[in-house]
Each structure stands twice: as structure tokens, then as C-alpha cells.
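anyone seen this seq b4? input:
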Amino acid sequence: MRFDKNDEYRKMMKSTHSNFLPLQLFFLVTLRVLIGWHFLYEGLVKLTNPDWSSVGYLLDSKGFMAGFFHSLTFKPAMLHTVDFLNEWGLILIGLGLILGIFTQYSTLAGILLLALYYLSHPPFPGLTFSVPAEGSYLIVNKTLIEMAALIVLYLFPTGNKLGLDILFTSTGKKKNG
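predicted toks r here
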């Protein structure tokens, strides 16, 4: 019999994901719902404010990706698309996390969106932004922390335990082994 580390790792992760302690599951789901609420609320606020646009935020970008973020504002159609994707991305990610539906996709989309926010306004020494931050940050800010929390939720998914993802799991199939 050959020892395979990858097989061992898969078995460990499968048992870890399927056997959360009740308190672990409670706090992972709570974290998922709280982050979902934050995304949903931010999206709804943007959607319902007819004066909202990402133009100011994008033009205030600094760091090595500033040129990319600035370029998104050059054409009105592009800016409109960015605003639409931002509003509805936030809303759909939020709903996915709150309801526990397509949670892995919602989590990955949330990580990507937060990475873009972080890269647009990185909390690096010497960079100042027109909108002051709520605190003083050095590399680590709330965006990075929320992104790390989403990575934890991606690694320890809960939608198939307490969420609508249950509808998409094969509960009727017998497990091998």
C-alpha cells in the first residue's frame, strides 16, 4: 500500500468540512452572514442613490495600479459598466453569502472585488487619498481583513451545511469508503 500525502490531505479536509463542531459552524455562518450583509447593504446604497458613481474613487486611486483604475473613467460607457458591475456585484455577493447559495462562487467574487478595492487604495506609507480613512493604517486595513475572512470562509464552506447550497449537494448518493 502506497502512502499518498495528497490523498491523506483530501481525507482530512473532507472530514474537517463535514464535521464542524456546532460552535464552529455557528460562528462561520455568522461571519458569512455578517460579511454578506455588509456587501448587500453597500450595493443597495449605491444602487438606490442616483448620484452615486465610482468616478471619484477610481480617480483617487494610487499605487502601481492607479493607471488601470484611472483608465476605467475615460469613457462614459466603461464607467457606467464599472458602476453597474460594482453595484450588482456587491448585491449578488451579499445575497449569496447571506442565503448560503453558490457560496464558493460568492466568496471568490467577494475576494476578487475586495482585492480590487485594496489595490485601488492601498494603505502604504506616503500615499494620501482625498477621502480620509477612518483610522491610521499601515499595509493592513479593513478591506484586507475582510478579504482574509472570506478566504477562511472559502476554505471552510458552510453553505452546504446551513444554506441553500444544500439543494445542490448530492445527499442521496452513497459515499464510497
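Helices lie at 5-18, 22-48, 55-59, 66-71, 76-99, 103-120, 142-155. The chain is about 60% helix and 0% strand. kinda curious what u guys think
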